[in-house]
Amino acid sequence: MTSKLVVYDPVQCCATGACGPDSDDEPAQFAASLEWLKESGVQVERFNLGFQPGEFATNSVVKTRLEQDGIDCLPLLIADGEIIKSGGYLSRDALAIAFHLEAPKAEKKTSSRGCCS
């Protein structure tokens, strides 16, 4: 079973990327999915290019991908050292499959307002 997910986000205004009144719903849903992963026993680390650029420069997998594809490869999701998604986020169902977890039941959609609105 994969036990660790590291997320390398593009430059965002906050850790979740779900800030502001015009925020996209996908980063907010992904942030909630990461919390679900943590509760399921998966270790999760998340780095933002705007706040932690050193993490991008010191990880050889991330550095190589950035050199090859530029920042369009972000967000970059790495599970136990292997890239599982580049250029986007995974849904909670896709994360469940990647980490061999039982897929969660569909939840009612709540307000799509960002964390800072």
Name a few traits of the molecule.
4-stranded mixed sheet; 4 helices; alpha+beta; 32% helix; Glutaredoxin; 4 strands
Brief account:
The chain has 4 helices and 4 strands. With 117 residues, the chain is of the alpha+beta class.
Mind explaining what this structure looks like?
By secondary structure, the protein is α+β, with helices and mostly antiparallel strands. The protein has one domain: Glutaredoxin, CATH 3.40.30.10. Helices cover about 30% and strands about 20% of the residues. It has helices spanning about 25-40, 55-60, 60-70, 90-100; strands at about 5-10, 45-50, 75-80, 80-85. Strands 2-1-3-4 form a 4-stranded mixed beta sheet. The chain is globular and about 40 Å long. The N and C termini lie far apart (about 40 Å). Residues about 110-115 have low confidence and may be disordered.
